[in-house]
Amino acid sequence: MSSVNTAHSVVEPSRTSKRIAATIVIAYAVITMIPLVWIVLTSFKSPPDSISYPPKIVFQPTLEGYCNLFTTRTRQTSEYITSLGAPTSTCDEITRSRNMVIAGPSNYWPRFQNSLVIAFGSTFLAVSLGTLAAYGFSRFKVPLAEDLLFFILSTRMMPPIAVAIPIYLMYRELGLSDTALGMILLYTAVNVSLAVWLLKGFIDEIPREYEEAAMIDGYTRMQAFFKVVLPQATTGIAATAIFCLIFAWNEYAFAVLLTSGAAQTAPPFIPTIIGEGGQDWPAVAAGTTIFVVPILVFTILLRKQLLRGITFGAVRK
Amino acid sequence: MTAQTPVPSKQKRPFFLRRGPMENIATGLIGLGFLMLFQPFLLIFYTWSLVTLLAGTLIFIIVSKFPE
Amino acid sequence: MPKFRKETQVTSVTDTSSSLLGKAANATPAPIASRIRGISDRSMAWLFITPAIVLLLAINIFPLIWAIYLSFTNFRANRPNAPIEGVGLSNYSRVLNDPNIWQAMQTTAHFVFWTILLQTLIGFSLAYLIDRKFRGHAFWTTVILVPMMLSPAVVGNFWRFLYQPQIGLFNYIVSFITGVPPSSFEMLGSVQLSPWAIIIVDTWMWTPYVMLICLAGLRSIPDYIYEAAEVDRASLWRQFWSITLPMALPFIMLAVLFRGIENFKMFDMVTLLTGGGPGSTTEVASITLKREAFESWRTGRASAFAIILFVAVFGLANIYVKALNKVKQR
């Protein structure tokens, strides 16, 4: 993506063609960003502003969406509200201006925490198991290696709903439905295939002479793996981990079918945020913004490894 | 990758035991299965799409064990 | 595949001390010579690979086999205590003769066809333009890539807001450009428009994916080929059709196959945008399957349907891996 050193020397495009290309690409990029910018803008609007016609681009920013996202509120008479003392926080103030009082915290934060626990837990497991397996496939002669690798890849291609039916029954028997552990195991299983494929590519690139030298110096195979191979593979492991994290973070189908409360993650929860009289769009936008920002950061961090990740390591540059 | 040792001369292998052409046939069958699954014209094609897909996939898996 | 026979003769002497995994330690007191050949290398390999395989067997393969078994029974998950009876192939024949499921397949086909066509056209064009290497192309590429990293469910849900007839931004922009009143059409509520509503969101989200792979394809074409064409005074048009496109084709195929597999099983984005509606105009296969399995609770039949979808995806996955290997050789 960035600076690839294969400039077409003789066939360097002319300046006009470059200018035309730049115009079209930038126009596309701007259009493609509109929905995302709109999410962020909406999250700072008040509910009436968010549904005004024509759509408002200039408006008085407010934190109401974020307040509504994190709290549940009840409507009260104005006499009752004036009888309360001074508001203790900005959110308190905003809520009271709408003739409501904060009744308690909403479920967003627990759901967000579930997302964190499940995404990081499954990523850690998938990358650990994946690194071991990738090393095994890369350095040893494994019988039927190609078939095993295909089998591993094909498990990722299964339609989630098709897998969800037996998983649902199995988890019901084992008491894993709606538990974080169940979701972590499931996401680990889905991610381990990507981890094996990606990491095998990264480990293949580490010259095996390094380990051989270490082992001649008296290291065991395991020591060589931990002290020589792992440090060399750090970049690859980090990239793989981010890919696994993004998958687990974004996943919806399994989450909506297998969790309902205690272990529900944020993606099935955000669409259910409603206010008085229908969807509370500023709150939904606020929830979406908070949910999406980490991914934006990761995308920027990953941009050099992105291609490799989305092609299961087939395309390296 | 597979254990079979390649037959010395390719010419002697009959057509249906060579990997390249058989793999193309299998790919074709899978593609045909998809068309049958997706077409809006005749229910009977839809009914038999699974068998076609299954046949294509099985042939693909088997011939991928053959040498080139 | 690695050949490790020779090297291990030197090293495996020390394998015994690997205390990290108990199994390895226990399997060692045999004489060195026998360990070198058989046990140490092979068992080491399995030691590394087994944990991942076991997890996949437990969470992916065992449930799959269970689903195959259920697809031959009349089991219903909401009545777990009712006796389970084998029904032979009748679940399969019902699914494969059901006009509603056939209809869902065509809805899926429409969705898959148009999303892939649009994404390939736009994605390849963008890649071609970015390959002109104008100033700042790396930055704009990263900007374009953002949508595909986001959660289809969460962002798809927000598109519901953009598609609102009166207040939504999408309708407003369309009416601003075309002059059609913004409340005169409903992207999600109308039978004609709703299939296109999901195609638009999917194209918005996944065009960058196709673009990225096409870009890799274009960059894999060595300069000397273009130089030779230049010497032969081949026109740009000619160069495009006889060099650029054929050379990038394996990459385009890769992207098309992967998007095909993904969109064939599309669930999250469509569920949140339309939920299959209005009526069943956007009910793609996965949504029908979900309704059969988790709303009608006909588990046996739903399993048969799931297996059919799985066979289709598995067939494509075979071709996909073949395409992957082709691209890898470049």
UniProtKB/TrEMBL annotation, chain A:
Principal subcellular localization: membrane
One GO biological process term: transmembrane transport
Membrane topology: Multi-pass membrane protein
Residue ranges constituting the ABC transmembrane type-1 domain according to the UniProt record: 112-302
UniProtKB keywords: Cell membrane, Membrane, Transmembrane, Transmembrane helix, Transport
Transmembrane segments: 20-41, 116-137, 149-171, 183-203, 224-249, 281-302
UniProt KW Membrane keyword: yes
Subcellular location(s) per record: Cell membrane
Record keyword Cell membrane present: yes
CC annotations in GO: plasma membrane
Stored Pfam families: BPD_transp_1
Similarity annotation: Belongs to the binding-protein-dependent transport system permease family.
Name by which UniProt lists this protein: Sugar ABC transporter permease
Species annotation: Phyllobacterium brassicacearum
Automatic annotation (TrEMBL), chain B:
Key words of the record: Membrane, Transmembrane, Transmembrane helix
TM helices/strands, residue ranges: 21-38, 44-63
Name used for this protein in its record: Uncharacterized protein
